[in-house]
Amino acid sequence: MKVLITSGGTTEPIDDVRGISNFATGALGKLTAEYFLRAGHEVILLSGDKALRPEPQERLTLVPIMGTQSLYEAMQDVVPQVDVVVHSMAVSDYRPVYMTDFEHLPDELTEASLTTFRPKREKKISSKADFQIMLLEKTPKIINAVKQWNPDVLLFGFKLLSGVTPERLLKIAHEKLSQTKADFIIANDLENIQGQAHQAYLVSEKDADRVISMKNKSEIAATILKKSEELRHD
Protein backbone atom coordinates (compact mmCIF):
# COMPACT_ATOMS: atom_id res chain seq x y z
CA MET A 1 0.00 0.00 0.00
CA LYS A 2 1.26 3.46 -0.91
CA VAL A 3 0.42 6.22 1.58
CA LEU A 4 0.70 10.01 1.43
CA ILE A 5 0.89 11.80 4.78
CA THR A 6 1.00 15.58 5.24
CA SER A 7 2.39 16.79 8.54
CA GLY A 8 3.46 19.85 10.53
CA GLY A 9 2.48 23.35 9.41
CA THR A 10 2.90 25.58 6.39
CA THR A 11 4.88 28.82 6.45
CA GLU A 12 3.60 31.63 4.24
CA PRO A 13 6.37 34.09 3.27
CA ILE A 14 6.09 37.81 4.01
CA ASP A 15 9.49 38.55 2.47
CA ASP A 16 12.67 36.51 2.02
CA VAL A 17 13.40 36.33 5.77
CA ARG A 18 9.96 36.39 7.44
CA GLY A 19 6.85 34.26 7.32
CA ILE A 20 3.52 33.44 8.98
CA SER A 21 3.29 29.96 10.43
CA ASN A 22 1.56 28.05 13.25
CA PHE A 23 2.47 25.90 16.23
CA ALA A 24 1.94 22.47 14.62
CA THR A 25 4.83 20.12 15.47
CA GLY A 26 4.08 17.24 13.12
CA ALA A 27 4.27 14.75 16.01
CA LEU A 28 1.12 12.90 14.97
CA GLY A 29 2.13 12.81 11.30
CA LYS A 30 5.54 11.44 12.22
CA LEU A 31 4.02 8.73 14.41
CA THR A 32 1.45 7.78 11.77
CA ALA A 33 4.19 7.46 9.17
CA GLU A 34 6.17 5.19 11.52
CA TYR A 35 3.12 2.94 12.04
CA PHE A 36 2.65 2.49 8.30
CA LEU A 37 6.37 1.90 7.74
CA ARG A 38 6.54 -0.76 10.45
CA ALA A 39 3.58 -2.49 8.82
CA GLY A 40 5.56 -2.70 5.57
CA HIS A 41 3.86 0.05 3.58
CA GLU A 42 5.44 2.76 1.43
CA VAL A 43 5.10 6.32 2.78
CA ILE A 44 5.50 9.71 1.12
CA LEU A 45 5.69 12.34 3.87
CA LEU A 46 5.09 16.00 2.97
CA SER A 47 6.17 17.89 6.07
CA GLY A 48 6.55 21.49 7.12
CA ASP A 49 9.97 23.04 7.49
CA LYS A 50 10.08 22.67 11.31
CA ALA A 51 8.08 19.44 11.59
CA LEU A 52 9.25 16.32 13.39
CA ARG A 53 10.17 13.56 10.95
CA PRO A 54 10.98 9.84 11.12
CA GLU A 55 14.56 8.70 10.66
CA PRO A 56 15.45 8.17 6.96
CA GLN A 57 14.69 4.60 5.95
CA GLU A 58 13.68 2.38 3.09
CA ARG A 59 10.13 2.92 1.81
CA LEU A 60 10.07 6.50 3.18
CA THR A 61 10.17 9.52 0.85
CA LEU A 62 10.51 12.88 2.63
CA VAL A 63 9.38 16.03 0.83
CA PRO A 64 9.89 19.37 2.64
CA ILE A 65 7.02 21.86 2.33
CA MET A 66 6.99 25.60 2.96
CA GLY A 67 3.85 27.44 1.85
CA THR A 68 0.39 26.44 0.72
CA GLN A 69 1.35 26.74 -2.94
CA SER A 70 4.18 24.22 -2.63
CA LEU A 71 1.86 21.85 -0.75
CA TYR A 72 -0.80 22.17 -3.45
CA GLU A 73 1.67 21.43 -6.24
CA ALA A 74 3.21 18.46 -4.40
CA MET A 75 -0.17 16.92 -3.56
CA GLN A 76 -1.49 17.44 -7.07
CA ASP A 77 1.47 15.44 -8.33
CA VAL A 78 1.46 12.67 -5.71
CA VAL A 79 -2.23 12.04 -4.87
CA PRO A 80 -2.99 10.21 -8.17
CA GLN A 81 -0.20 7.73 -7.35
CA VAL A 82 -1.28 6.64 -3.84
CA ASP A 83 -3.90 4.47 -2.16
CA VAL A 84 -4.34 6.48 1.05
CA VAL A 85 -4.03 10.17 1.98
CA VAL A 86 -3.69 11.22 5.63
CA HIS A 87 -3.97 15.01 5.50
CA SER A 88 -2.92 16.00 9.02
CA MET A 89 -0.97 19.13 8.09
CA ALA A 90 -2.01 22.43 9.66
CA VAL A 91 -2.44 24.49 6.50
CA SER A 92 -2.50 28.27 6.78
CA ASP A 93 -5.97 29.71 6.17
CA TYR A 94 -4.47 33.00 4.93
CA ARG A 95 -1.24 34.14 3.28
CA PRO A 96 0.32 37.61 3.00
CA VAL A 97 -0.26 39.66 -0.13
CA TYR A 98 1.87 42.58 1.00
CA MET A 99 2.92 44.56 4.07
CA THR A 100 3.32 48.32 4.17
CA ASP A 101 3.36 51.27 6.58
CA PHE A 102 0.63 53.89 7.03
CA GLU A 103 2.39 56.36 4.75
CA HIS A 104 2.08 54.12 1.71
CA LEU A 105 -1.47 52.82 2.24
CA PRO A 106 -4.14 53.72 -0.36
CA ASP A 107 -6.23 56.74 0.64
CA GLU A 108 -9.41 54.68 0.55
CA LEU A 109 -9.40 51.28 2.26
CA THR A 110 -11.78 49.18 0.20
CA GLU A 111 -11.49 45.62 -1.07
CA ALA A 112 -10.96 46.93 -4.59
CA SER A 113 -8.23 49.39 -3.61
CA LEU A 114 -6.41 46.85 -1.44
CA THR A 115 -6.46 44.05 -4.01
CA THR A 116 -5.26 46.31 -6.83
CA PHE A 117 -2.64 48.10 -4.74
CA ARG A 118 0.15 45.54 -4.56
CA PRO A 119 3.60 47.12 -4.13
CA LYS A 120 6.56 45.25 -5.56
CA ARG A 121 7.57 42.65 -2.99
CA GLU A 122 10.76 43.54 -1.17
CA LYS A 123 13.45 40.98 -0.39
CA LYS A 124 13.50 42.28 3.20
CA ILE A 125 10.91 44.73 4.49
CA SER A 126 12.39 47.68 6.40
CA SER A 127 11.87 47.75 10.17
CA LYS A 128 12.07 51.55 10.45
CA ALA A 129 8.31 52.17 10.71
CA ASP A 130 6.67 51.85 14.14
CA PHE A 131 3.62 50.16 12.61
CA GLN A 132 3.02 47.97 9.58
CA ILE A 133 -0.23 46.83 8.01
CA MET A 134 -0.44 43.46 6.30
CA LEU A 135 -2.99 42.37 3.72
CA LEU A 136 -3.84 38.66 3.76
CA GLU A 137 -5.72 36.60 1.21
CA LYS A 138 -7.51 33.30 1.79
CA THR A 139 -5.65 30.17 0.72
CA PRO A 140 -7.33 27.38 -1.27
CA LYS A 141 -8.80 24.43 0.67
CA ILE A 142 -6.46 21.78 -0.69
CA ILE A 143 -8.33 18.88 0.91
CA ASN A 144 -11.34 19.72 -1.29
CA ALA A 145 -9.27 18.86 -4.39
CA VAL A 146 -7.98 15.46 -3.23
CA LYS A 147 -10.95 13.40 -4.47
CA GLN A 148 -10.90 15.33 -7.75
CA TRP A 149 -7.30 14.31 -8.29
CA ASN A 150 -7.97 10.68 -7.29
CA PRO A 151 -11.62 9.65 -6.73
CA ASP A 152 -10.60 6.20 -5.49
CA VAL A 153 -8.12 7.32 -2.82
CA LEU A 154 -8.96 6.67 0.84
CA LEU A 155 -8.93 10.12 2.44
CA PHE A 156 -8.44 10.95 6.13
CA GLY A 157 -8.97 14.60 6.99
CA PHE A 158 -8.65 16.45 10.30
CA LYS A 159 -10.73 19.11 12.03
CA LEU A 160 -9.33 21.07 14.96
CA LEU A 161 -11.48 23.34 17.14
CA SER A 162 -10.90 24.81 20.58
CA GLY A 163 -13.12 24.88 23.66
CA VAL A 164 -16.27 23.37 22.14
CA THR A 165 -18.58 20.62 23.34
CA PRO A 166 -18.12 17.10 21.93
CA GLU A 167 -21.53 17.47 20.27
CA ARG A 168 -20.46 20.65 18.50
CA LEU A 169 -17.14 19.10 17.48
CA LEU A 170 -18.84 16.06 15.94
CA LYS A 171 -21.40 18.21 14.13
CA ILE A 172 -18.65 20.27 12.49
CA ALA A 173 -16.72 17.09 11.65
CA HIS A 174 -19.74 15.64 9.82
CA GLU A 175 -20.12 18.90 7.91
CA LYS A 176 -16.48 18.67 6.85
CA LEU A 177 -17.05 15.09 5.65
CA SER A 178 -19.69 16.41 3.28
CA GLN A 179 -17.63 19.40 2.13
CA THR A 180 -14.42 17.49 1.43
CA LYS A 181 -15.81 14.10 0.33
CA ALA A 182 -13.35 12.56 2.81
CA ASP A 183 -13.87 8.97 3.92
CA PHE A 184 -12.94 9.83 7.51
CA ILE A 185 -12.50 12.96 9.60
CA ILE A 186 -10.48 12.92 12.81
CA ALA A 187 -12.04 15.60 15.02
CA ASN A 188 -10.13 17.04 17.97
CA ASP A 189 -10.24 19.94 20.40
CA LEU A 190 -7.04 21.89 21.12
CA GLU A 191 -7.90 21.93 24.84
CA ASN A 192 -7.70 18.12 24.87
CA ILE A 193 -4.22 17.88 23.31
CA GLN A 194 -1.31 17.82 25.76
CA GLY A 195 1.83 15.90 24.83
CA GLN A 196 0.92 12.32 24.01
CA ALA A 197 -2.56 12.78 25.49
CA HIS A 198 -4.74 13.55 22.49
CA GLN A 199 -8.50 13.05 22.69
CA ALA A 200 -9.96 12.64 19.22
CA TYR A 201 -12.94 11.13 17.41
CA LEU A 202 -13.04 9.29 14.09
CA VAL A 203 -16.21 9.87 12.09
CA SER A 204 -17.24 8.60 8.65
CA GLU A 205 -20.09 9.15 6.19
CA LYS A 206 -20.69 5.45 5.58
CA ASP A 207 -20.98 4.65 9.30
CA ALA A 208 -22.51 7.91 10.53
CA ASP A 209 -23.90 6.44 13.75
CA ARG A 210 -20.57 5.00 14.92
CA VAL A 211 -17.93 7.27 16.39
CA ILE A 212 -14.55 5.87 17.41
CA SER A 213 -13.03 7.64 20.41
CA MET A 214 -9.23 7.73 20.75
CA LYS A 215 -7.31 9.06 23.74
CA ASN A 216 -3.73 9.51 22.51
CA LYS A 217 -1.60 9.87 19.39
CA SER A 218 -0.68 6.18 19.33
CA GLU A 219 -4.35 5.20 19.24
CA ILE A 220 -5.02 7.69 16.46
CA ALA A 221 -2.13 6.41 14.33
CA ALA A 222 -3.08 2.77 14.97
CA THR A 223 -6.72 3.44 14.06
CA ILE A 224 -5.75 5.16 10.80
CA LEU A 225 -3.51 2.20 9.91
CA LYS A 226 -6.20 -0.35 10.80
CA LYS A 227 -8.91 1.37 8.76
CA SER A 228 -6.55 1.74 5.81
CA GLU A 229 -5.61 -1.95 5.83
CA GLU A 230 -9.26 -2.97 6.16
CA LEU A 231 -10.35 -0.87 3.18
CA ARG A 232 -7.24 -0.99 0.98
CA HIS A 233 -5.26 -4.10 0.14
CA ASP A 234 -1.72 -4.49 -1.16
UniProtKB/TrEMBL annotation:
SUPFAM superfamilies on file? CoaB-like
Which GO molecular function terms does the record list?
Answer: ligase activity
Database matches in Pfam families = DFP (PF04127)
The DNA/pantothenate metabolism flavoprotein C-terminal domain covers which part of the protein? 2-99, 116-227
Q: Does the keyword Disulfide bond apply?
A: no
Domain of life where this protein originates = Bacteria
Q: Which Gene3D superfamilies match?
A: CoaB-like (3.40.50.10300)
This one is known as Phosphopantothenate--cysteine ligase
